[in-house]
Design a protein that fits this description.
Blueprint lengths: L4 H12 L3 E7 L8 H10 L5 E4 L10 H13 L3 H12 L7 E5 L1 H7 L1 H11 L3 E4 L8 H10 L2 E6 L5 H10 L4 E4 L12 H14 L4 E4 L5 H7 L5 E4 L1 H7 L5 H19 L4
Parallel strand pairs: 1-2, 1-8, 2-3, 3-4, 4-5, 5-6, 6-7, 7-8
Helix pairs in contact: 2-4, 2-12, 4-6, 5-6, 6-7, 10-12
Amino acid sequence: MKMSRIDAKFAQLAALKRKALVPFITAGDPSLEATVPVMHALVQAGADVIELGVPFSDPMADGPVIQRSSERAIERGAGLRYLFETVARFRRDDATTPVVLMGYLNPVEMRGAEAFAKAAAEAGVDGVLLVDLPPEEAGPTREAFNAAGLQLISLAAPTTTPDRLARLATQSQGYLYYVSFAGVTGGGQLDTAAVLIKAGDLRAMANVPVLVGFGIRDAASAAALAPAADGVVVGSALVDALSAATDPEDAARRAAAFLAPLRAALDQVA
């Protein structure tokens, strides 16, 4: 069986002893035309995987920055067709960088898991992270995704029970996203010491790489949390930096300028 783009990327990073840098952006924000140029700019600035947010009307796990970006994208018409067409356009010039869709279960259920997975895979998507899909109920969705060649990415949090953590550690595919604090994206106060301990414990249990997200705002916070994980995810701060872009070229410049210092900082972490 052919190795997935996600697994190949993390194998490459492990061989290089390099931490993964995974930026999150909302598809369709700051404009419909900017998403693909921003994706390419992020890769050029050192992104290893791109998480592409699926605009949704009730993003309960997201803080105000990502909520507003999702609302703006929906107003512009950033539906699933746009999302899949965007990934397909990105794939014309980048056949190797993994793309993971991050969103909620409702759009998948509305289209049907098999049809959603087929369209996503044909566009060039590699994985999907569904914030509100409990691991105990994920079996049918995972089967439909896997049949199309997609990996189902899982989330763990400080409030995740030991039984559920054990399940996630063995069932996770691609990578395991550890939420650094209980709350919404872009908010909360990081207890770095606690995150390092918990993420490190999870990393020792998991059969896939562990990434830390929520609360990564800059190079300093990325470098502080990276030692206990295989990499970091940055979302709200990047989305906020892009929000004032005046055109696709400006958005791409802002994306690269934001991400490059994080890449440099992570490359100093053993």
